[in-house]
Structure formats: structure tokens, C-alpha cells
Write a structure and sequence with these properties.
The protein is α/β, with parallel strands linked by helices. It has a single domain, classed as TIM Barrel. Helix content is 28%, strand content 23%. The protein has a nine-stranded mixed beta sheet. The protein is globular and about 45 Å long.
Amino acid sequence: MIYPINEIFHTIQGEGLYTGIPAIFIRFQGCPVNCSWCDTKYTWKKLKSRIGLLEDILSKKTENNIWCYLSSTFIVKIIERQKWNINHIVITGGEPSIYDLRPLTFALEKAGFFCQLETSGTYKIYCSEKTWVTVSPKINVNKDYPILSQPLFRSDEIKYLVENENDINLLDSILLQVNDNKKRIISLQPVSCSQIATDICIKNCISHNWHLSIQTHKYLSIK
């Protein structure tokens, strides 16, 4: 399986349940959802004019829209070659669930890695059973890409971005759709580290016994 990749790098996971865990990020190129608050807008379009070399992907110092095609087996070889002492993999984007991720997640697991997928819930998810799936549902963002039920039921964690009180009502409507008794984590994340949104998240995390997800990497000024 061949995938469009924007970056492969290692850092600290800054969001969700695994905040603080050293992680290797595999960032996909391409996403049609176009969230207004997205902080990786450089991954939206797969411009042929921006196809680069593997060296361009591995040596990035700044965020940009250069990308290249890599196979699942070659991605594993690249990561193993770096000799990073990390076994947590974050597959993110862009929108990685556009693609069948089973070849990649199976290959990574065979090599001894643990996979976490970050996805918007707008595409059906095809990955290994052991992959931890974090769905960040984008409600009413793009009418052409509604939230699907399959990724919600597959989710191990629903990481929901909050800007105002109405967002909590929208989240409640989603949770009614997945009343399946699965012990999934519900994480609230304030949009753009806004203080108003953060206060709303804290209040609702306490009242619902949910998890607070702060974009720690932004406070620490790390990638």
C-alpha cells in the first residue's frame, strides 16, 4: 500500500489520553474537510508540484506542504533506521482514514510498535484491531463530509474540540448515537487554547467525569 506522507518525526504527544508519551508521528497529506481552526492546513491539498524526496520529508525544520509517496513496508524501515527509542506511533494528518491503514498498522505492529490513529470521523476506518482510535468528530463543519457512525463505534477515544457551550450540546447528540456500553475515553479540547473554551471544558469535564485535553505541545513550544 502506498501512502502520501508529509512528515515522519518524533516528539511528545501533546493531546488526548496519551499526552506526555514520547511518540513517532506519521503525518499524511490530504484532507478535504477543511476545518477553520485546523493547525495543519498545509496538509490539505496533494499538489503534484509539491511532491518531494524522502530527504525533504525527514529533514523538515518548518511546516510546509511538501510530501511524497511511501509504501507501508518502507515507512517501517525508515522508522527502524532512525533508531528512536520509542514504540508509540501516531498516524495523523491530514486525514489518514481516506486510505486503508491495515497494511501500515499490521506492519508496524509486527515490528513491535503500538499504533494510535487520529481521525475526523468523516471516513470509515480500516486498521488493525489493536490500533487505538482517537476520533475528533467535526460536526457541521463540511456538509459534504458528515460524521459517520462506523468510526464513532470503532473509537477508543472521542476527542472533541470545544469553542462554546453549544459544542457540548452537539457532543451530547453524538454520544447518544454510540450508547453501546463501550468504555471509551471522552476528551474535551479547547479550540486554539482559548481561555473561554478552556473554562467550558474544565466545567464539563468535572461534571461529566471526562478527560481534559490541553494542547500541551503549544504551551511547551514543541512540535
